[in-house]
Amino acid sequence: MAGGNWTQATEILLLGFPQGQPFLFLLFLAAYLVTLLGNAAILALVLLDPRLHNPMYFFLSHLSFLDICYSTVTVPKVLANSLRPQAAISYRGCLAQTFFLLSCAGAECALLAVMAYDRYAAIVHPLHYAHTMHRAACWAMAVGCWLWGVLDSVVHTVLASRLSFCRDIRLQHLFCDVPPLLRAACGNTKPSESALHVASIFVGFGPFLLVVGSYLRILVAVLAMPAAAGRHKAFSTCSAHLLVVTLYYVTAILNYNRLGTNSSQLANVVVSALFCIVTPVLNPLIYSLRNQEVRAALWRVLGGWWGSRGCEADVGPPQ
Fold it and tell me: How many domains is the chain partitioned into structurally?
């Protein structure tokens, strides 16, 4: 085991999932399927509908892909473990899961800030929007978000690989992540704890400040609009993103900033499930229910598909 000769265990026991609970298995399976279908639907709409070929929906498609990655990193293993007598994961598999999970978390922090900046540029500086948010700039921002998450994850994963464990590794958790690894470790965990707190400030709180700053400027600009219709349209384009930001940051703060609390095993499991499983389910629902353009694109795509099917049926087989 990396980090010393305290233990040579190659398998990590995951004790967060209560065994023999078919209802929970079905619940997580349903959540995963809804996540895949909902986010894949948004990806397909952005690809197929030309009216959604703009920066706002370009970044939304990246958010949908991130949510699919989030769930795929954790939920399939949770489902498989729920069918085993003892939930477990290999040590290397645990580190890999931690790496990809944190990569997604860091990338989403940055992406939410970029999406807020996009709304700021569109509402506060509409005349310069096309020049500011051109195609190359959008791609550069998207790639930067992914690199932001990967670089942050590399630091945490390397530090986690150096943790020492005094006995068999038992995580009171559904899946591998830095907080449960730190709670299970013995020896010096200060480097990892410090890195986690520093990341909370720079990787998490930094983008959050950009989101807050962008929306404060947006609020000032919207309140200065003379027409009520313009204000309503501006608020409607921002409301879905604000809900997603609030949901994400509340669950992220609860998940990564409670190392010193005496929270119960159930509380830790519920918070981690909200962060990694429930949030990706809700994001596409929020955008589809609160965004008129997404709903209209859905009806256009479905209408076009049914129309083409109807035409094929009318033509019939050749005589």
Answer: 1
Q: In terms of DSSP bridges, do strands 88-90 and 11-14 run parallel, antiparallel, or are they unpaired? A: antiparallel
Residue 47 is part of a domain; what is its CATH number? Answer: 1.20.1070.10
Q: In what helix (H) or strand (E) does residue 11 lie, and over which residues does it extend?
A: strand 11-14
Regions of the chain short of the pLDDT cut 50: 1-8, 311-319
Residue 42 lies in a domain: yes
Cα separations in angstroms, 292 against 3, 10, 122, 280, 296 = 53, 51, 17, 20, 6
Residues 182, 179: Cα–Cα separation, whole Å: 5
| Whole-number Cα distances in Å, 266 to 14, 97, 184, 259 | 13, 21, 16, 15
Whole domain around residue 184: which residue ranges?
11-293
Helix, strand or coil, per DSSP, at residue 259: coil
pLDDT, tens digit, 9 for 90 and up, residues 228-246 = 766 777 677 777 788 888 8
pTM of the model: 0.83
Structure tokens at 23: 């209802």
